[in-house]
Amino acid sequence: MRTSEERISELHRRMVQMEEEKSRRLYRVKAASIGATCAVLALLLAFLISQVPVRIPEGEIGGAAASIFAENEALGYIVTAFLAFCLGALATILCFRLKRGTEEKKGKSDD
Q: Which one, of 101, 109, 102, 103, lies nearest residue 20 by Cα?
């Protein structure tokens, strides 16, 4: 038979284990939601840009090769750079969140 102290220590060990499992699940949900948000925003921006009409002057083939806008190449480059920046910023935020979660997990396991 176990003593009261053994039961209490087992109860505390089990509570810590359950708390760690809960934090792991929460971390996975957060990481998945951040990744899904990044993907949705990138796809939404790409979809919105694809709706911009492209006008190719008559007689030219592939006039929009360097730009999504045939008549205004500078605007096309600006929009492309903006989309690249947004995607990079979202990916950076995701990486920092994942790193912070990993560091928190290490800190809890060291205690």
A: 109
Query: CA nearest 101: which of 26, 6, 39?
Result: 26
State how far the alpha carbon of 67 is from the alpha carbons of 42, 50, 55, 58, 81, in Å: 19, 12, 11, 17, 11
pTM for this one?
Answer: 0.47
Please give the Cα distance from 73 to 70 (Å, whole number).
6
Count CB-CB contacts under 10 A for residue 34: 18
Across the 111 residues of the chain, what is the mean pLDDT of every consecutive 10-residue run? Answer: 86 92 87 80 75 64 50 67 80 82 75 59
Rounded Cα distance, 23 and 46, in Å:
34
Contact 86, 45 (CB under 8 A): yes
Strand ranges inside the chain, DSSP E: none
In sequence order, which residues have a C-beta less than 8 Å from that of residue 28 and are 6 or more positions away? Answer: none
